[in-house]
Write a structure and sequence with these properties.
The complex is a heterodimer of chains A (223) and B (206). Chain A is α+β, with helices and mostly antiparallel strands and 223 residues long. Helices cover 50% and strands 15% of the residues of chain A. Chain B contains six helices and five strands; from the N terminus they run ααααββαββαβ. Classes of the chains: A alpha+beta (223), B alpha+beta (206). Strand 2 of chain A pairs parallel with strand 5 of chain B.
């Protein structure tokens, strides 16, 4: 697919005929004042970005526990003249005894690298994959369509075509797959009609990046 | 970033990235040293590179206690850990906090000095009722979230069967949202709309 930033306003065109074109703001300084539009201008993707609340809470909790425990234990040792906690003595002994090529050390390091990569992925990717960005009719409005809602809309549209008996639709972020059972009609005829209906319905979804649909028809006999 | 809670989204992602980088760097250093990649891959690591030999301990007693007798050691360790604890506490709490607004300041036409507060719940209810008047909308949930300079609206709509999503959004923008903004006297109402589908039985035309 091509760059969605260039594609967005163009695709929005036919759906929002009566609205001023979003891509060309009338005043030059307008986008600077509107939060969402301004934030999204430098980003090529209009995707919805997850706040990453759960991973943040988990990481914050783990770090908090580790730092808090270490802080408590060191303060207790130095200020109250107690012995260091057993876990800290054990940890220090292990760190001093095990060499870098020890299997445990390497395993822990590998896990740390993988966890680090995971956190970087979470930090840098938008997330919220279930929400497909829609072309916004105005600078103050952002809209997203659930993939499931898109699938239901396409299914309902396809079922209106005569001869279509059952439809299964899966909508991905770039591609949609529709499988339909045809009865009592010529498959080629139904396909042509279905393709027309689908083109309309896909446009009606109002997505920034309309998915390409692959259509599979199967002839079934009987009721 | 996300339309609502933008500051938190950015902060979360920066902190997650920093944590990830730290884990990656620490784990990577140990792996490079432990697997002796310098020799195996014929790398030329600089002389200051830490943990370069596979047969050295991860953290020897001598290294661990190197600065223990210095005056600055414990204050430095404690303030570092204390800052980390405070940062993590703030980070954790900000995940739990709901960023909803309780009340909305409303402008009175013709009187710029008047301060009128509207309960956010009342405005949310009105917005939900208005959204339900749009053809193709079966359910609506509106929440107002903190934002500068005006609150941000998050609207979750359930689409009816045979609704046209693009038409729903266009109509909502043209009529309901504009009306809500004007009647509440808000200069702007940044909105994030999410359209969901309700699993409904397939209506077939024979």
């Amino acid at each position: 697919m091509t760059d969605p930033a260039e594609q967005g306003p163009e695709k929005a065109g036919p759906l929002t005929k009566d609205e001023p074109a979003h891509g060309v703001p009338p005043e030059r300084d307008a986008p600077a004042r509107h939060g969402p539009a301004a934030e999204h201008a430098p980003i090529a993707s209009p995707r919805f970005w997850s706040a990453r609340r759960v991973p943040s809470a988990v990481v914050a909790l783990l770090l908090l526990a580790a730092a808090g425990l270490l802080l408590y234990d060191t303060v207790a040792v130095e200020a109250a003249d107690r012995r260091a906690g057993r876990w800290r003595r054990e940890l220090a002994d292990q760190l001093a005894a095990r060499q870098l090529d020890d299997a445990w050390v390497l395993a822990v390091a590998a896990v740390a690298v993988l966890a680090g990569l995971l956190l970087l992925c979470l930090a840098l990717t938008p997330g919220r994959r279930a929400v497909l960005p829609m072309a916004a009719p105005g600078p103050d409005l952002r809209a997203g369509l659930d993939r499931r809602a898109a699938a239901l809309a396409l299914r309902d549209g396809a079922l209106r075509v005569a001869g279509v008996r059952a439809v299964r639709v899966k909508v991905g972020r770039r591609r949609a797959r529709m499988r339909a059972d045809v009865h009592f009609r010529d498959v080629a005829e139904v396909r042509e009609e279905l393709e027309n209906v689908l083109a309309d319905d896909i446009a009606g979804l109002g997505l920034v990046r309309p998915p390409r649909v692959s259509l599979t028809l199967r002839e079934v006999n009987g009721a | 970033m996300s339309g609502t809670g933008t500051g938190r989204t950015a902060a979360n992602r920066v902190l997650l990235a920093l944590t990830g980088l730290a884990l990656l760097a620490g784990g990577g250093l140990v792996l490079v040293g432990g697997l002796d990649l310098e020799r195996r891959w014929d790398l030329a690591l600089p002389s200051w590179w830490p943990l370069a030999e596979p047969d050295r301990p991860v953290l020897s007693d001598a290294d661990r206690t190197r600065w223990r007798d210095e005056d600055w050691w414990w204050p430095a360790v404690w303030s570092g850990l204390g800052l980390l604890v405070l940062l993590c506490l703030w980070w954790l709490v900000s995940q739990l906090r709901e960023r909803r607004v309780g009340r909305v300041r409303v402008r009175v036409p013709g009187d710029d000095d008047a301060v009128v507060w509207l309960r956010a719940g009342a405005l949310e209810d009105a917005l939900e009722r208005q959204a339900l008047t749009v053809e193709g909308v079966d359910g609506a949930r509106a929440t107002l979230h903190r934002g500068r300079p005006v609150p941000r609206l998050r609207l979750t709509l359930t689409l009816a069967a045979h609704a046209v999503p693009a038409a729903v959004v266009a109509r909502l923008h043209r009529e309901q949202l504009a009306e809500a903004r004007d009647s509440a006297g808000l200069p702007a109402l940044p909105t994030e709309v999410r359209l969901r589908g309700d699993r409904h039985p397939a209506a077939r035309v024979e």
